Amino acid sequence: MNKLAALKMASDLFVGAMEALITVQKINAMAAAAEGRELTDADWEKVAVDTKDANDKLAAARKAAGFI
Amino acid sequence: MKRNFSSYFISMMFVTCVVAACSTMVACDALVVRAPVDTPAKSVAAAELTLNGIKRTHANLITTGRIKNAADDKFLVEQETKYAEVLDLAKLALTTGNVVATQTHLEAMQTIVMELNKRIAELEGAQK
């Protein structure tokens, strides 16, 4: 494996790791914001917005790769 | 001197790859086991955010070329769909106040996400 390929592989793996860590942060932020109370419609709306964003991103990637 | 630096650089890249892959697995494990949520509703919301994270990782695997064929994509899509169906059941159980059913569905989602994480880790470690 040459240096450029190794660097790209490391970069790709970091992207995946960062995505997982960002999700953990989102969950922590949600829990912290809603500490001591139940979730409100506004909290669920934020989750719904995040869901739409994730669905759109995945659909775009799959379409670009020709999987759909 | 130059040859030693090149070898050192490549070695560090490999170490970085391993650390990044381990970080992904640890972070995903934290999502499933240790996310600090204290009510069934928050657990269900956390489960939905977890699915969203997995979908983004799936998208990244496609754009970085780690998912090269439709079969790998299909497996992840099937597991994500299964997870989403169980998530809907958990939300329904939540609205009816059935805590036991909600917890059962959350545990089922935990099993699915373990499978997803396993496959994602394999794909991340696959040589291009």
Detailed description of the structure:
The complex is a heterodimer of chains A (68) and B (128). Chain A has 68 residues and is mainly alpha-helical. Helix content of chain A is 82%, strand content 0%. Chain A contains two helices and no strands. The two termini of chain A are 32 Å apart. The mean pLDDT of chain A is 87. Chain B is mainly alpha-helical and 128 residues long. Chain B is built from four helices and no strands. The radius of gyration of chain B is 18 Å and the shape is elongated. About 6% of the residues of chain B have low confidence. At the A-B interface, helix 1 and helix 2 of A face helix 1, helix 2 and helix 3 of B.
Brief rundown of the structure:
The complex is a heterodimer of chains A (68) and B (128). Chain A is mainly alpha-helical and 68 residues long.
Bulk shape of chain B: elongated
Largest sheet of chain B: none
Cα-to-Cα separation, first versus last residue of chain A = 32 Å
Oligomer: heterodimer
Output the number of helix runs of chain B. Answer: 4
Q: Sum up the overall morphology of chain A in one term.
A: flat
Low-confidence stretches of chain B: 29-36
Radius of gyration of chain A, taken over Cα atoms and rounded to an integer in Å: 17 Å
- Helix proportion of residues of chain B, in percent? over 70%
Give the topology string of chain B: H per helix, E per strand: HHHH
Notable traits:
heterodimer; A: 68 residues; mainly alpha; flat; B: 128 residues; 4 helices; elongated
Give the SSE layout.
The complex is a heterodimer of chains A (68) and B (128).
Chain A: H1 3-33, H2 41-65
Chain B: H1 2-34, H2 40-63, H3 70-95, H4 99-125
